């Protein structure tokens, strides 16, 4: 297959949703279609206290939530699919945000009884900023749902997203009898199969077919006909160009657990979604390279290899005790044993231990293409956001930073394992599990950690103990807001600055000044009293 054909068949996406909307269930069904279940061992029901293929960390098992992202790769209908799993719990949204920098499209799963929920909204915003295509699946139609028209209205009013339904539900809850495909004008009838383990048997017919008439009660039939007329008359026509630029979302309805409407979704998604797109390379001085790189778009068919690391995961396999850097390939062809430049350090590295990943299973990968995600084992020098390339003029800056909301001091209460503690903490910080800052007036020996949610701190403690055998102590710090301050002479002597009680100062790891606030009020007071000090949500580049 030619490189162009290899790239054109890649589909790299993530499923975004509020917890419990059905992301795991849908993922499992996709794997079923991709014939990939055998690779993972059986994907199991979480209710039986067993983990699914993508839930493999001990802590995840204990809590029944998904913490770390994995990559699920499978072939379906000629497409090479990279499905990037994202942690669902809100405390891990930072990790999820980073994963979303590596995808070319997103599938938004919504519980049709609940509509757009908080976590979906946040994740959607991250996708929208990147302009990637977003497809919508209204799940759980076998249960009583909101009116489907109201669900579309919510996409418009809550997310500001124009929608175009491709698949329309026939009834809901007990009267859910199937879906109507607005493209082919065909009805797919749904039959309940206990457990929904296999593809539900489907009958395809016209809306006015006697079989369909017989299945639908008069009320549902009339309602559906009215809704379809309304959509045909007043709905947004499907606009592929708008979809591929993230301006319109195709909407599908179905039921993941019953495996109904899933194939229609998968087929439609893979057809209308996009192959890998060119990425922006930024202007930056790279070590050992004579001039700064120039900002430009790197075409996916650029023969030079490039990619960026968007996630680091340590010790996926307790037996191996190693570390995997996940690399999203952006251009060129990856070949095992190739030598690339690590742009941040300017060093040449040989990529000999590269893996295709599937939950906890690995398979050595000899070649890979733009859109693919590979795991690189054993390079402790790699950090999140690093570019690896054979072209010194390419450097990506794809890692968004997010405002921290919780803060805690961590320290080592047991001097006997101080060395292990320091090594472990350094490693975890490099992985980006949490961020760290230097706070003025920090207790001796304590490091200030900042995260999006408190569970991230627990992960740090748990991993220090289980992977580095190091004890740690957490003491909550009183702030809820962190801002970066533009450099200003007054910051050299913060005690001269007028602040409300509880406000503190510090620096990030690059020595940029930061200000820490206990609440909104103290922030507003600061802005009012110190107009000359400019604050930002993100570090100043
Ligand atoms: P996640 O948190 O988004 O990964 O959600 P899960 O896939 O774990 O699903 C949450 C719950 O919803 C589980 O109990 C599923 O069995 C259930 N569920 C998923 N899809 C459907 C569906 O189509 N219909 C119904 N009734 N329940 C569903």
Automatic annotation (TrEMBL):
Record keywords, A-Z: Cytoplasm, GTP-binding, Nucleotide-binding, Protein biosynthesis
Gene Ontology annotations of biological process type: regulation of translational termination
GO cellular component: cytosol
Coiled coil: none
Keyword Glycosyltransferase: no
Tr-type G domain residues: 8-277
Record's subcellular location: Cytoplasm
Keyword Protein biosynthesis: yes
Main location: cytoplasm
PROSITE patterns in alphabetical order: G_TR_1, G_TR_2
UniProt-recorded Gene Ontology molecular function terms: GTP binding; GTPase activity; translation release factor activity, codon nonspecific; translation release factor activity, codon specific
InterPro entries: EF-G-like_DII, EFG_III/V, G_TR_CS, P-loop_NTPase, PrfC, RF3_C, RF3_dom_3_sf, RF3_GTP-bd
Residues reported in the UniProt entry to bind GTP: 17-24, 85-89, 139-142
Signal peptide range in chain numbering: none
Family: Belongs to the TRAFAC class translation factor GTPase superfamily. Classic translation factor GTPase family. PrfC subfamily.
Job description of the protein: Increases the formation of ribosomal termination complexes and stimulates activities of RF-1 and RF-2. It binds guanine nucleotides and has strong preference for UGA stop codons. It may interact directly with the ribosome. The stimulation of RF-1 and RF-2 is significantly reduced by GTP and GDP, but not by GMP.
HAMAP family (alphabetical): Rel_fac_3
Name of the protein this chain belongs to: Peptide chain release factor 3
Taxonomic lineage: Bacteria, Pseudomonadati, Verrucomicrobiota, Opitutia, Opitutales
């Amino acid at each position: 297959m030619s490189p162009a054909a290899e790239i054109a068949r890649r589909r790299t996406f993530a499923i975004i949703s509020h917890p419990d909307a059905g992301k795991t269930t849908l993922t499992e069904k996709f794997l079923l279609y991709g014939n990939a279940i055998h690779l993972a061992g059986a994907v199991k029901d979480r209710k039986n206290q067993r983990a699914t293929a993508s839930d493999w960390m001990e802590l995840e098992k204990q809590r029944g939530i998904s913490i770390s992202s994995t990559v699920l790769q499978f072939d379906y209908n000629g497409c090479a699919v990279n499905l990037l799993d994202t942690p669902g719990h809100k405390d891990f949204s930072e990790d999820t945000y980073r994963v979303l920098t590596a995808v070319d499209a997103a599938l938004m799963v919504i519980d049709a009884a609940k509509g757009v929920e908080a976590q979906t909204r946040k994740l959607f915003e991250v996708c929208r900023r990147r302009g990637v295509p977003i497809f919508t699946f209204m799940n759980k139609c076998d249960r009583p749902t909101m009116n489907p028209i109201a669900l579309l209205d919510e996409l418009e009013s809550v997310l500001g997203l124009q929608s175009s339904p491709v698949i329309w539900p026939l009834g809901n809850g007990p009267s859910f009898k199937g879906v109507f495909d607005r493209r082919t004008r065909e009805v797919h009838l749904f039959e309940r199969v206990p457990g929904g383990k296999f593809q539900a048997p489907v009958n395809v017919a016209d809306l006015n077919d006697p079989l369909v008439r017989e299945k639908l009660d008069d009320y549902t039939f009339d309602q559906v006909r009215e809704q379809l007329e309304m959509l045909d008359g007043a709905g947004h026509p499907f606009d592929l160009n708008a979809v591929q630029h993230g301006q319109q979302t195709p909407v599908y309805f179905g039921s993941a657990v019953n495996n109904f409407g899933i194939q229609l979704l998968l087929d439609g998604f893979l057809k209308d979604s996009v192959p890998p797109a060119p990425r922006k390379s930024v202007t930056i001085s790279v070590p050992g390279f004579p001039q700064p790189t120039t900002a430009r778009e790197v075409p996916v068919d650029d023969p030079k290899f490039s990619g960026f690391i968007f996630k680091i995961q340590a010790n996926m396999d307790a037996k191996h005790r190693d570390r995997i850097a996940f690399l999203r390939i952006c251009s060129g062809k990856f070949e095992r044993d190739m030598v690339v430049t690590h742009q941040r350090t300017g060093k040449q590295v040989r990529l000999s231990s590269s893996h295709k990943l599937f939950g906890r299973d690995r398979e050595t990968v000899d070649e890979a293409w733009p859109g693919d995600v590979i795991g690189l084992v054993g390079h402790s020098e790699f950090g999140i956001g690093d570019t690896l390339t054979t072209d010194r003029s390419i450097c990506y800056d794809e890692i968004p930073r997010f405002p921290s909301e919780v803060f805690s001091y961590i320290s080592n209460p047991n001097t006997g394992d101080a060395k292990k503690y320091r090594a472990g903490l350094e490693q975890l910080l490099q992985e980006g599990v949490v961020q760290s800052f230097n706070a003025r007036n920090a207790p001796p020996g304590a490091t200030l950690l900042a995260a999006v949610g408190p569970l991230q701190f627990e992960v740090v403690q748990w991993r220090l103990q289980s992977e580095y055998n190091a004890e740690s102590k957490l003491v909550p710090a009183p702030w809820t807001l962190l801002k970066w301050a533009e450099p200003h002479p007054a910051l050299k002597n913060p005690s001269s600055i007028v602040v409300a009680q509880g406000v503190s100062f510090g620096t990030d790891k690059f020595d940029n000044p930061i200000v820490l606030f206990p609440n909104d009020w103290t922030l507003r007071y600061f802005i009012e009293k110190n107009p000359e000090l400019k604050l930002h949500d993100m570090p100043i580049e």
